[in-house]
Design goal:
By secondary structure, the protein is of the alpha/beta class. The protein is built from seven helices and six strands; from the N terminus they run E-H-H-E-H-E-H-H-H-E-H-E-E. It is globular and about 50 Å long.
Length: 210
């Protein structure tokens, strides 16, 4: 048996401003660091054998806060396959201003749908098509060998991966979200089959999402 631990990065200034980040490399705030330290305590009972983050600074910084909080000492790999969704022409734009421009219905399709096209960007399906093969080819082998794996990444990266892990439909994934510094823990058997799940942290902001 092994643990798969997913931790979403801490708050950034762009998150706070309601701006889509995508591949833009934004750092986490002091508040983001504090919340990651708090979230890290929820997994202090789990030995971490190997860690993965995206190539983006916000996930690397969040991982370092976990390291400092828990005293981790394990290999860590930074992978482009785990990067946040690229929002194309909407990168850097305020999402609430975009909602006014597009209307609520079109905005929700853009923001949450599985395969709604984004000019010069990615759909969630595109993210799924890079995250899931990486999970199958790399992370699953670690889990099958009994290694406990920590992933630190972004919201849409985890929406895509959790869609696969929990077999969530294309329609239902539009309703799924996880907060900043969220911590999801899965139990995985030696065949790579998930047989348990805990949400140890999901909403440090008590319902307020940026």
């Amino acid at each position: 048996m092994a643990y798969l631990v997913l931790v979403r990065h801490g708050l950034t200034e762009w998150n706070k401003e309601g701006r889509w980040q995508g591949f833009t490399d934004i750092s986490i705030t002091a508040a983001g660091k504090a919340e990651i330290k708090q979230a890290a305590q929820s997994i202090k009972d789990i030995r971490i054998d190997i860690a993965y983050t995206s190539n983006l600074t916000r996930t690397k910084q969040s991982y370092q806060e976990i390291v400092k909080s828990l005293g981790l000492s394990c290999p860590v790999l930074h992978e482009a396959a785990l990067n946040e969704r690229d929002y194309g022409i909407y990168n850097g734009k305020n999402k609430w201003e975009v909602e006014k421009e597009l209307g609520k219905a079109e905005f929700e399709k853009l923001r949450r749908s599985f395969d709604y096209p984004v000019p010069a960007g990615e759909t969630l399906k595109n993210v799924y098509e890079r995250v899931v093969p990486f999970y199958k080819s790399k992370i699953l082998n670690d889990l099958k060998s009994g290694k406990n794996v920590l992933l630190v990444s972004s919201g849409n990266t985890f929406r895509a991966l959790i869609k696969y892990l929990e077999n969530i439909s294309d329609v239902d994934i539009s309703k799924f979200d996880l907060g900043f510094a969220a911590v999801f823990v899965y139990k995985v058997d030696s065949q790579g089959i998930i047989f348990g799940k805990e949400i140890r942290v999901n909403d440090l902001y008590q319902g307020k999402h940026y």
